[in-house]
Amino acid sequence: MTQTGSRVGSATVTFAGSGDAFGSGGRLQACILLRADDQPPVLLDCGATSLVALKRRAIDPNLVAAVFVSHMHVDHFGGVPPLILDGQFSRRTAPLTVIGPAGAERRLAAAMEVIFPGSSAVHRRFAVNVVELEPGATPRLIDGVTVQGWPVDHGIHGGPFLGLRLAIGGAIIGYTGDTAWTDTLLDIAAGADLFIAESYYWDKQVSYHLRHADLLAHRDQLGGVRTILTHMSDDMLSHCTRGPIRARLRRSQRDRVKGPGERYRQGEDHRLVVDRVADEWAGHAVTAAAAAAEFCADDCDDLDARLA
Fold first, then answer.
1. Is residue 197 within 8 Å of 176, Cβ to Cβ?
2. For the chain, domain boundaries
3. What residues have CB less than 8 Å from 23, skipping those under 6 apart?
4. Which of 43, 77, 128, 158 is the most exposed place for a label (fewest CB within 10 A)?
5. Cα angle 147-283-95, degrees, rounded to a multiple of 5
6. Cis geometry, peptide bond prior to residue 160 (ω within 30 degrees of 0)
7. What global pTM score does this model have?
8. How is residue 258 annotated by DSSP?
9. Which tens digits make up the pLDDT trace of 71-87?
10. Taking the CB of residue 16, how many other CB atoms lie within 10 A of it?
11. Element (H, E) at 186
12. Could you confirm whether domain 2-307 is CATH 3.30.460.80?
């Protein structure tokens, strides 16, 4: 079990898509499925390739009860209109809730009209409910998930931009979305069972995006929270498959990579860097907390992180 203080968490996080906007490394765009034993699954971001990501893993999109959207860029939100249309044509009946930043309802309707004119107003067998989050507002319980939005620094067109902190099945998950470093991320990560962090570049300065170097610079403040890196560019991925990361793995016997079928248990002092291709890691379940100052780099789609 994953325990933090008096909390006991039981949730599964499936990285059906973990890529950037440009398909770096052949990855699908952001599509992170959160599941607890006693409630329907929800999505954390829903990039344009999300239907492919879900169906590739034989996950029925009609089971998704809610989509939590960090911001309205195509690689985080572009899969929501197809998700709705797929539900319409497959005779979905369960309601779908879309949770996002201010303006989400208006922009969802506009996106529907761009993709299929007339689709925003068509009658469906299921309701689509949109909830807009205000940064820093009191946490809200929506479809069994408690969520709070935090302002982050992705200050290009298309905001507002949110980092998200979610509680599901007793586990707490922090998510940076896309952002430059801001101390708000410390609040999002504090006491979390899992911190999902953008790591767009290794150390090159790119406006409004996190680098691996930023996370390393603040690792003491982050306090050793288990971290999975996503939204990696080709530059970042090149460091995951050769060079400094793997060199560090070789220097320490305890910092070894476990293969498919092996599990990391709570309290083990291991570093995990997944640097295999996706097919080799399909269905790989990981159970662990990362050691302080260590980071778990998700280098594939199809990675399950089981917080149980």
1. yes
2. 2-307
3. none
4. 158
5. 40
6. yes
7. 0.80
8. P
9. 999 999 999 999 999 99
10. 25
11. helix 184-189
12. no
